[in-house]
Amino acid sequence: MEIRNHFKNGEAQTSKRNSFVMAVLMLFSINSYSQNNVIDTCHTYLKENGQSPEKYVVSKFEQYDYVFLGEYHRNKQDADFVTSLIPGLYENGIRNIAIEFYAYKSQRIVDSLLIAKEWNEKLMYHQLSSGFGIAWGYTEYINLFKKVWEYNQTLNPYQLKFRVVLLGYDYDPCKKGLERFGGYDPDVFHAAVFEKEVISKQEKSLIYCGMHHAFTRYKQPIIRRRKFYGLNDGRMGNIINRKYPEKTFTIFLHSPWDSNKGSYRQVVKPVNGAIDYLMGLFNNNPMGFDVKNTVIGTLTANNTYYAIGYDNFKLEDFCDGYVFLLPYKEVKFVSVESNFYDENSLNKLREYMKCRGYSDKQAQKITHEIAISMLTEKPERHYGRLMK
User: Fold this and answer.
1) CA dihedral angle for residue 35, residue 39, residue 41, residue 46, rounded to 10 degrees
2) Do 308 and 76 touch, CB atoms closer than 8 A?
3) From the CB of residue 356, how many other CB atoms can be counted at a distance below 10 Å?
4) How far is Cα 228 from Cα 246, in angstroms, rounded to an integer?
5) Partners of 252 in the β-ladder
6) At 201, is the pLDDT very low, low, confident or very high (cuts 50, 70, 90)?
7) Burial classification of residue 13, based on how many CB atoms lie within 10 Å of its CB (0-12 exposed, 13-18 middle, 19 or more buried)
8) What whole-number distance in Å separates Cα of residue 56 and Cα of residue 22?
9) So what CATH class is 47-337?
10) Domain residue spans in the chain?
11) DSSP character for 99?
12) What is the largest CA-CA distance in the chain?
């Protein structure tokens, strides 16, 4: 009797296990089928709607006045891409590129340098080396100014000239709290400058900045000591979007996302690698495409910092449009502009680094060659295994 009962119990347990396994397999098959269907639909959508990145970005100004282009920072292909947009933007009535990286206090002199008959490299570099700009002496970012000057030389005297609007605050690392940023919240400052220099003049502009400043509809998680404190709607794009919701559009320049693990520089592929996979189907050719209100926007992820605070985080929560330029393994970082660091700017850099923790002795050892080496970064340090 005990043997018979044991046998029956064994049959029941085996049956339960088999049922569980079958249920898991069925669920996996259903999810895989569903995911494959979405990917197939995304592939079809991109075949029918994907555009060259240049054409895509410029086309958004047909509907929007303020197009944010959010980057990871220091990617050579991103900075080069923005510079390549100058003629297309101007020909379509957009004569401003607003950028995050250099101090607004130099705006008037930079304006004059960009319309001068001769290119004054030394004075331009001196203006750009103010505040945080002293640590942003990168060739590809600085090249934007030279290319704008060159383009302005092709215009006749009666044509309006192209501008670069400087959104940066006067950063002082020796001070604490908001005093480091001239007493302003950085994003509030960026937004105020943009409103004064572009919106109040009833003009349109591309805004080229770090992705976190470019958020318009998306609210960024506030994490301190690994605790979630809510969602931040105070980034520059959020501020401008609240006032002009029908005029703003955010495009994400393809790059890794921060993971939700909390460790420094641990990154993951956006929406679980779906974009990378889809771009592979197009031989990794550069492409721009809409995200908001499309099947691409329905792609989800839960392994990223950006999903924290969201029940069902989707790509369309994060951005409105997307630009893919090249795969991670081909990414190069910007180079340091050798002529940027003359003795005057080296002294600024030494003072800057002292405020960042260098001793007087360490700071005085910073030579031209050390400055270039110190500011040069490799993408492998940021992207790691994603580049393999």
Assistant:
1) 160
2) no
3) 11
4) 30
5) 70, 322
6) very high
7) exposed
8) 46
9) alpha beta
10) 47-337
11) E
12) 106
CB 279 within 8 A of CB 327: yes
Tokens 């994400």 sit on residue: 252
pLDDT tens for 74-125 read 999 999 999 999 999 999 999 999 999 999 999 999 999 999 999 999 999 9
C-alpha pair distances (Å), 106 with each of 84, 119, 210: 24, 16, 20
Tokens encoding 372: 């270039």
**Angle separating helix axes 236-243 and 186-197, nearest 10 degrees:** 50
Cα angle value 339/115/124 (rounded, 5°): 20
- 279-316 pLDDT, tens digit each: 999 999 999 999 999 999 999 999 999 999 999 999 99
- The whole-angstrom separation of Cα 106 and Cα 128 is 7
- Closest residue by Cα to residue 139 from 4, 338, 357: 338
The DSSP secondary-structure symbol of 363 reads H
In this prediction, residue 265 carries a pLDDT of 62
Q: Are 189 and 131 in contact (CB under 8 A)?
A: no
- Predicted confidence at residue 262, as pLDDT, reads 65
Q: How far apart are CA 292 and CA 249, in angstroms?
A: 10
Nearest CA-CA partner of 232 in 186, 272, 192: 186
Q: What's the CA angle centered on 269, arms 266 and 275, to 5 degrees?
A: 170
* 163-168 and 96-103 beta bridge pairing: parallel
Q: What CA–CA distance (Å, rounded) separates 100 from 28?
A: 45
* CA 384 – CA 208 distance, rounded (Å): 25
pLDDT class of 22 with cuts at 50, 70, 90: very low
**Token pair 């959020």 in the structure block, residue:** 238
Which range is least confidently modeled, 83-92, 153-162, 377-386?
Answer: 377-386
- C-alpha–C-alpha distance, residues 167 and 176, integer Å: 21
Pairing, β 267-268 against β 257-258: antiparallel
C-alpha closest to that of 82 among 107, 50, 54: 54
DSSP string, 149-179: HHHHHTS-TTSPPPEEEEEE----TTS-GGG
| Residue whose structure tokens are 């501008």 | 163
146: how many CB neighbours lie within 10 A of its CB? 15
Among 156, 182, 139, which residue's Cα sits nearest to residue 339?
139
Asked if 251 contacts 68 with a C-beta cutoff of 8 angstroms, the reply is yes
